[in-house]
Amino acid sequence: MPRLLEKCRRLSRRPVVFLSWLGRYEFSILLSAVVLFAGIWGFIELADTVMEGETRPLDERILLAFRTPGDLADPLGPGWIEELGRDFTALGGVGVLVFITLITFGYLLLSRYYRASIFLLTSVGGGLLASTLLKLLFDRPRPDLVSHGSIVYTASFPSGHSMMAAVTYLTLAALLIRIQPRRRLKAYLLLAALLVTVLVGISRVYMGVHWPTDVLAGWTAGAVWASLCWLIARWLQQRGAVETSAQDDVE
To answer: How far from chain centre, in Å, is Cα 94?
Structure first.
């Protein structure tokens, strides 16, 4: 019986140990995210392929897979799934992202991370500007195969919701990680940011307002921007230009 209890205790500690290990290597995780989403080179190659129309068959196949066979106006699944899709897509909307950014800005101010709060606004604002410019540059039409589940008024490539979700949530996570001494919390923040970013992107395809390659491009550009912000924040903190945590990393 004591051996069984000891084994159960060891098993229960594994998730905690994993999160601690993951939090210790947040730099590698962010760089891996850039590699995963193909980085700058991948975005350029993807944009070139999309503009030449080579991705159209694959885009159509994936987009139609999210629709009920025989009724392209009906997203796949019951009504509560459709409502869930709208909820997730709202997490990448400008209004929600601005609100979350301001809430975090207030938290940093109250925590006396004054320069970090300014860096936050600059990072997210710069990402929004980059997203807008990319849309104007490529000016890709929205999907015309299915009805749209939400109102759209900008170009399709890259997905603004996907890019800004990656920019905002990953940048917030990266910045908070730099001032958070606990490794498990570092890992938790990063994993939560990645999860929300992925869900927002999938919801845009599910709602029929973006081609899958729009979302992939948004993820790529957003991950690159967040990684760049992380590197700049780290460089500034090493020089004392942006605040860091007052404690060393602890378990």
So the answer is: 14
Q: Does the active-site annotation cover 210? A: yes
Query: pLDDT, tens digit, for every residue of 98-112?
Result: 999 999 889 888 888
pTM value is 0.77
Cβ neighbors of 85 (< 8 A, separation 6 or more) are 75, 149, 203, 206, 207
- The strand pair at 67-68 and 71-75 is best described as antiparallel
Burial class (CB in 10 A: 0-12, 13-18, 19+), 126: middle
Dihedral Cα 236, 237, 242, 246, nearest 10 deg: 180
- The pLDDT tens digits for 182-218 are 778 878 888 899 999 999 999 988 888 888 999 999 9
* Cα dihedral sign, 132-133-139-143: negative
Which of these is catalytic: 210, 219, 222, 228? 210
Catalytic annotation, pick one of 161, 183, 186, 204: 161
CA distance 33 to 152: 28
Query: 125 pLDDT exceeds 80?
Result: yes
Q: Is 148 a catalytic residue?
A: no
